[in-house]
Design brief:
mainly alpha, 3-stranded antiparallel beta sheet
Length: 299
């Protein structure tokens, strides 16, 4: 069996489901491939469901933020990514285009298969209206920032989408929000206070959208305050993974925690976590994620 014919099974978040993924059924059989996805928001404007339409016409509803195992001809993150040679073909791009930035960044890290895999997809064409493309940009920047400590290139990649305005689509906005939070934190660490504050303001755009319905406006404010003051930092999930000595799961949950921490820091902190405490936690989490990744790579 050739590398291109192999089927890989990996765990991903519902919002990362993309065309080509197949859901695992009982007995190990696969569903038809995913043809496309859509995100449905709840009454408060937050993503609630991911609806995947399969090539056979069936629709699958998955809770936004949940994890599930899928099969694909493309491997997930990790050393096995090197097997998917078709993923690693970087398409030459015209100078000055977003694709050229992607290719240039990838060439700076030729041995990182995750960077190569994501860059290969984006080098074929970046569509900022595509949720999966936005997710890839955010993931590439995150990989550069956290795993290889290349903050300059992480900023270059983030800048490809941080000027995209909020259009009411929270499914797409989640990736842009992540890039804005990451960029603002990096700029803050570099002493670029004015730029950091500009990015922070852009990230808060959904919070400032005027809601004409008084009741809904009140509920939105309550939900936002709860997100800031009672954030889910995935303590239970991380402790469970540590108890099971599951380093891969622990790393992935710490990555989720890191995203929440950078969001809170960019938002200005909260009543329970001040900016200084958030910065300390972010630094600790980056160290932990890098250490776990090195152990997994070495293994």
């Amino acid at each position: 069996m050739t590398d291109q014919q192999r089927t890989y099974v990996h765990t991903i978040k519902a919002e990362m489901i993309a065309p080509g993924h197949m859901f695992l059924r009982r007995g190990g059989k696969h569903s038809a491939e995913v043809a496309g996805t859509a995100v449905v928001n709840d009454d408060f404007g937050s993503p609630a469901l991911v609806i995947a339409t399969l090539t056979d016409g069936k629709k699958v509803r998955i809770a936004h933020g949940s994890s599930l195992r899928v099969a694909s001809t493309r491997p997930g993150p990790g050393p096995a990514s090197a097997l998917a040679l078709d993923d690693l073909e970087l398409i030459p791009a015209e100078e000055g285009t977003p694709e050229a930035v992607i290719v240039d960044v990838a060439r700076a890290h030729p041995k990182d298969m995750d960077i190569q895999r994501i860059a290969a997809r984006l080098s074929k064409g970046l569509n900022i209206k595509s949720g999966s493309n936005l997710q890839d940009v955010r993931d590439l920047a995150h990989r550069l920032f956290v795993y290889v400590d290349d903050r300059d290139n992480a900023l270059r990649v983030c800048q490809l989408i941080t000027d995209v305005p909020f259009d009411g689509n929270f499914g797409r906005w989640k990736s842009i929000q992540g890039a804005l939070a990451m960029s603002a934190f990096i700029q803050h660490e570099a002493g670029e206070t004015e730029e950091s504050e500009r990015l922070a303001k852009a990230m808060r755009a959904p919070d400032e959208v005027e809601e004409k319905d008084p009741l809904r406006a009140k509920m939105n404010a309550i939900v936002l305050q709860r997100q800031l003051n009672e954030p889910n930092l995935y303590d239970k999930e991380i402790h469970r993974a540590m108890a099971a000595t599951d380093k891969s799961a622990e790393r992935d949950w710490r990555v989720e925690r890191l995203a929440v921490l950078t969001y809170l820091r960019t938002h200005g902190g909260s009543e329970t976590l001040e900016p200084a405490e958030l910065e300390r936690r972010i630094a600790n989490e980056i160290v932990a994620v890098r250490a776990l990744n090195e152990q997994l790579t070495a293994g």
